[in-house]
Amino acid sequence: MRLLALAPLFLPWIAAAQPAIQNLQLASQAGNVLRYEATFQTTEPALAYLSVMQGGQSFNTSVSGPATEHVLPLYGLKENLPYQLVAHAFNTLGETSSMPVAFTTASVPTNIPKPIGVSNGLGNASDLVAINLPIGTHHFIEIYDRNGKLVWYQLVDSPASPCIGYYWTKNKTLLFLDDDCQTISEMDLAGNVLRTVDISGLPGGPFYFHHEFRLNDDDHLVALIAELRTIDQSSVGGPADAQIVGDGFLELDWDGNLLQYWTSFDHLDPLTATGSDGFWQFYFGPESNDWLHANSLMEDTDGHYLMSLSNPNQVIKIHRETGEIIWTLGDSGDFTISPTDARFRNQHSVSATGENRYLLFDNRGGIFYSRSTELEIDPVNMTATRIFTFDDGQETLTPVVGNALRLANGNTLTCFAQKGLIKESDPDGNEVWSLDLQLFSYRAYHFDKLYDDIPEAQLLVPGICLDDEPNAAPFYPEVEPSGGYFSGMHVVDGLFDPLAAGVGLHDLTYTYGWKSFPLQIAVSTTPDIPAIQETGDLLSTSGGYTYQWYLNSAPIPGAIDSFYVATQIGTYQVELFNQGGCSALSEPILIEVLPTRETPAQETLSIFPNPTGGWVRISSHNGPFLGRMQVFDVLGRRILDRTLEWEREWFVDLSACSSGPYFFLLENEKERIQQMIFLQK
């Protein structure tokens, strides 16, 4: 017998007593009437959260801790409303709540812009829309509910142009530019600046951030940058010392280390730069020529980069590792766009909505109106076809900035930036919601909610084995998220008692914060020693919850199914685990000869689908297959034996069989074909 390691989860703050809340205080944040901070102490280390009630509705903040000194930020409030707040603290023994605290929010300062109207308000919808409003040398970053009510705002000092930009990360943190255009900071919803990157001293510069910056999956900052180079354009009739501003991007860690640098000067031709619009003259001088005007940098579904180049009306796809341009979509690009009026101009915010599908905000493609446009490309035939558009009735033109965003419900959020209109449309292009700001907003983003929800709880180890612990002590089952409390039969002082519970499945309730989850834990003893069945090189067993196969006493990586196809000569064993974590190891079997590898099924026959829900189809590629077909289950029992005559296609119904692997063997005088098919119901 071998026992799966099932040490009870050790929490360094395992509760000695249920927590009590003391000295609850609530104060508004200086300079922001919609943000508060709750402070209190607990008599034991505990996790904590706040519940907020207003007018029959309520919400909960995220869970924080464990700690005994608690400082919880509170946001998502609206102005001039009475609220009640309750603090909650919990540990492995249970939860305690404070008495309600009443407070009333103040009026938002008059210099904070507000929308003038909302159409088709979405009532009690919990999702939100974030916008930014550049006014002078300041940006007001704001979040509204679907009835147009302000629930969050922040004033940041940042230039409106040319380094305009802000971004909400998936962690609900705000990335924004400082007014030097060389510093990006990250701020949480409580208004705390978490970290900053400054590129003013980066070799090869100066570089200036602009328009697009975001976090990748490695938590690195990826940002568009502009740089100036002197280019001899005399060969095309230009000056010998043309001042060309090109675009690129940097990948940086938060210590400022440069991890990747891509520049358009290495991959595109600056001789094509014409004219000067003065966009970068404040930083690069009055003669600087804004060559490409990149305004969007996103990841495609395959991880490569999509960059929008507004001036040449192009989207380019950049290989993430090599930096090579994979394709160009747009004017003078690699794809024929249809219909012809789907051509885009001065576009912004290109994003992938699926494989080979791209959504962009088309500023001037409608000539006299702007629109959201989605194109699907065919990389074989080199075509791009419009599959969606929303144009606000061809009534709204915003020549610069703006964005389009695909929502989780399939709708599209469009920011007609210069008009201050944020609109949501359904997949058919019908407007379903609108927010009217009447103020310039660079981009709009969507929030499902401001606070993190509690994830579904799960037992990381679903049981315990009693065999080697006749006096097994009560324990705290290993669970995620950890730190909540269990209740139910055989739970005493927050601990589950496996001896009192006895062998079997036991129902528990796990409570974490404001959510409770039904869970089952198994208590068991050592199972019977498993037997291994051999069918050629197919080894199989049954009766376990999980498995591990061994070759010459060493575990085979990834061999955790009830079967294994032997690939080497040697001694094989299987370890079977039941749901309680108890295990038994089989007797060893020696494989001295492996069968000769047969003709791959796909060369002569197609046996599919795999896995299957019941029916299996067998098709011959080379005319009728004359021979014999046998099907074996995981125990090596033959469940079908059929003579094949003049057919080219056969169907086998496994729907009455149990889920698991089945071994198909087809043979005649010339060949022997075998394939494993998995039945999943």
Mean of pLDDT: 90
Say what the CATH topology of the domain at 601-679 is: Immunoglobulin-like
Question: pLDDT below 50 for ≥5 consecutive residues: which ranges?
Answer: 1-10
Ends: how far apart? 33 Å
Q: How many β strands by DSSP?
A: 58
Strand-residue fraction? over 45%
Helical percent range? Answer: under 10%
CATH class of the domain at 601-679: Mainly Beta
Inertia-based shape: globular
C-alpha-based Rg, rounded: 32 Å
Which structural class do the helices and strands define?
Answer: mainly beta
Question: In the CATH classification, which architecture of the domain at 601-679 applies?
Answer: Sandwich
Describe the main β-sheet briefly.
7 strands, antiparallel
If you had to describe this structure to a student in words, what would you say it looks like?
By secondary structure, this protein is an all-beta fold. Among the domains are: 533-591, no CATH class; 601-679, Immunoglobulin-like. Helix content is 2%, strand content 49%. The chain is built from three helices and 58 strands. Strands 2, 3, 4, 5, 6, 7 and 8 form a seven-stranded antiparallel sheet that branches. Strands 1, 46, 47, 49, 50 and 51 form a six-stranded antiparallel sheet that branches. Strands 9-34-33-32-31 form a five-stranded antiparallel sheet, with no helix packed on it. A hairpin with a 5-residue loop joins β33 (421-425) and β34 (431-436). The radius of gyration is 32 Å and the shape is globular. The model is unreliable at 1-10 (pLDDT under 50).
